[in-house]
Amino acid sequence: DVKVTQSSRYLVKRTGEKVFLECVQDMDHENMFWYRQDPGLGLRLIYFSYDVKMKEKGDIPEGYSVSREKKERFSLILESASTNQTSMYLCASSLLWEQFFGPGTRLTVL
Amino acid sequence: EDQVTQSPEALRLQEGESSSLNCSYTVSGLRGLFWYRQDPGKGPEFLFTLYSAGEEKEKERLKATLTKKESFLHITAPKPEDSATYLCAVQTGGNKLVFGAGTILRVKS
Q1: What is each CA distance from B47 to A40, A99, B19, in whole angstroms?
Q2: Beta bridge partners of B91
Q3: How far is B102 from chain A (nearest CA, A)?
């Protein structure tokens, strides 16, 4: 079974802090994704990566950056957290088309 | 712009009362349509992939169908454990998915 793990289930940070969300997959998948999920808006793609050290912007990249130094690890970085970044963050990986998701990190920015 | 619309937003059923969820889409070139189930506080769990109009997939009480403009997720004789949010997503170019907002299903015993 594909396993995607995320570093924290719940996180509380203050405005202006730098925040790191980590995601690890154990199935040697090429593709990895970061989404945020907000009520009524569904999942929105922040960034994705097709390969190590490669990244592409999704639909809402502003205020975020990513890092993929190793194939199995994809990190999302909030350079200076703001209250409008309070959300559920979901990481996913895929080999072909089907994406497999981690359990999510619920981030609250105060 | 690629768009996915799910209806209804929420659905309440009695145990055993069959129904359908709808996912309509407007995309430039459909490569695949995906259904996911999401329980509260958890990540989405993959259910089905449909690639072409007329295709059907089944899993226990769930059956997904696809036409050129929409997909249906049919739930036959649902049980309380089927309560969840059901998400639909379409794949167009590349490996990106466009998600609908989801349908929240509640099944009461």
Answers
A1: 21, 11, 17
A2: B32, B97
A3: 7
Please give chain B's pLDDT, 109 residues, in tens: 788 999 999 999 999 999 999 999 998 888 899 999 999 989 999 999 999 999 999 999 999 999 999 999 999 999 999 999 999 999 877 668 899 999 999 999 9
pLDDT confidence of residue A1: 67
Question: Domain spans of chain A?
Answer: 4-100
Strands B19-26, A64-70: pairing kind: unpaired
| Number of neighbouring beta carbons within 10 Å of residue B11 | 17
The CATH classification of domain B3-108, taken from the options 2.60.40.10, 3.40.50.300, 3.30.160.270, 1.20.950.20? 2.60.40.10
- Inform me whether the C-beta atom of residue A95 falls under 8 Å from chain B C-beta atoms: no
Q: What is the DSSP letter of B9?
A: S
Comparing CB atoms, the residue among B32, B41, B44 nearest residue A101 is B44
